[in-house]
Write a structure and sequence with these properties.
The protein has 203 residues and is of the alpha+beta class. It has one domain. Helices cover 19% and strands 41% of the residues. The protein has 3 helices and 13 strands. The strands form 2 sheets. Strands 1, 2, 6, 7, 8, 9 and 11 form a 7-stranded antiparallel sheet that branches. Strands 3, 4, 5, 10, 12 and 13 form a 6-stranded antiparallel sheet that branches. A hairpin with a 2-residue loop joins strand 3 and strand 4. The chain is globular. It starts with a helix and ends in a 9-residue tail after the last strand. This is Lipoprotein. Keywords: Signal.
Amino acid sequence: MKKVFILVVLFILSGCAVAGGTDPSIKANPESDYEKTYKDLGIGQIHDFEFTLPKAGERWVRVWVEGYHDGKKIEEPLVEISYGKNPDQTEKGQMGIGIIRDGGDGALLHLYAPGVSLMPRESPLPLNDPGISTWEYAIGEEGIKLALGEEVLLGAYRQSSSGTMEAFDLQNAAQVKRMIKQDTTVLLLKIKVGNDQEQQGNT
């Protein structure tokens, strides 16, 4: 009986270690309060994630949006946040991008992360052109772990003036390239976590 008790305790402790872990993780959060607020106010759309960062005091996070128009990449990120070395042992909160419609031809981009948020900035790309548009998550609600130093695609906003839009696998780099060439406007939301600020260099 004693041996069984010890085995059960070891199993529970092992399970806790796996469940907690030290890897950063992120998951889609499509039913968040943020999304409900955007929808209720009718101001645009928001794409929300739940982000967990263990060892926050030792790590830096970079979140940014790449823009493409007619297959050509905009040189600088449309919006970008870089932060790190939080004194808290573990940082957890919401992260995402909001597209705010201003009623005209333009749109504002609102990028936010746990404890930090940018003032909405005017998008240099047209996001209200005639045609069809969609937002697609690249990760699901089950979430993924983030390897340090690895650039990860979280989702894409797509706009097409052709009236049709092909489905692409956002986990497939070759298909993402095809999507960029085929659609009129593409925004890619990306994240990268590293051990120090130098690892967050521009992509």
